[in-house]
Description:
- It is a single chain.
- By secondary structure, the protein is α/β, with parallel strands linked by helices.
- Helix content is about 35%, strand content about 15%.
- It contains 13 helices and 12 strands.
- The protein has helices at about 25-30, 35-40, 45, 65-70, 90-95, 105-120, 125-135, 160-170, 185-195, 200-205, 225-230, 250-260, 300-315; strands at about 10, 35, 50-55, 75-80, 100, 155, 175-180, 195, 210-215, 240, 265, 285-290.
- The strands form 2 sheets. Strands 8-7-6-9-10-11-12 form a 7-stranded parallel β-sheet, sandwiched between helices. Strands 2-1-3-4-5 form a 5-stranded parallel β-sheet.
- It starts with 7 loop residues before the first strand and ends in a 12-residue tail after the last helix.
- The model has no long low-confidence stretch (mean pLDDT about 95).
Amino acid sequence: MGDLDLPGVLVSDLEGPHGICEDHVEDLKRHFNLITMQDFLENKAQLGPKIQAVYIWGGRPAISQELLHSLPSLKIVASAGAGLDHLDLGLVASFGVKVANTPHAVSSPTADLGMALLLAAARRVVEGHQLAVSPHTENFPIDYMGQQVTGATLGIIGMGSIGYKIAQRARAFEMKIVYHNRKRRKLEEEEAVGATYCERLDDLLQWSDFVMLAVSLTPHTQGLIGKRELRLMKPTAILINIGRGLLVDQDALVEALQTGLIKAAALDVTHPEPLPRDHPLLKLKNVTLTPHIGSATHQARRQIMENLVESILASLNGLPIPNEVLLK
């Protein structure tokens, strides 16, 4: 624990694979008395009343009813990133506790990764790298082909801040952009990126050469892409998922990739993470996988931390909370 005169903030740990970013610890200690879960669990009676905020990094610490009951002074749960599927917002609100996240800090780097995955899968970059460095390679095959990106149709599912930034980047590749979203964007926003709204998801799936999942995980979107949806896609289509693994029926995806129902997939997210080492997705050449690194740049992670600090301090001082998540 740090300065006892500073507001108590609960964190998962100060180091290790499940801790907060170690580069941020000293900055956080300037504002808060950081209390780890281990310290808290060993001394709930003394530390519980001192904790005024929970700082969630990488989905930890988990927020349960038992934990909320143990924190009588809690004012805010501040969660890194845009996704909120790890939080029961109604439960948190029932304790009179605010929630904040950091959607703007992650939108650009996640959109960058979405385009990187699209390009890598289209041009078979990972497979090509393996071919180029293999000790068994004697000649480069002249029929080593990929899919063209320029002029292709990109279907974006989820046109929030991340989806819109993907559209901005795709326009520079002269792609035709269609999108499906809960709410249609303003006409001027569509025109700015050359995007066409698809009210029916089925139409987007049938028209697109690339399908990009950039939607939040909710009970409504879980399993959004299953066997039926994959059958609607072109046999030359590539699926990219930068949202959450549970948006896709992975068994159906494996079958679609094995049978040529679709051409390829590029996934920054799976369920679970990491996948079991014997999972069939790990054995397919037409799959590109990254370890959930959408926002993993030094610059973005620092901005996330700064946004969380700003939201916590605002809450503790009775000020409007930046990026407050409001129950709908």
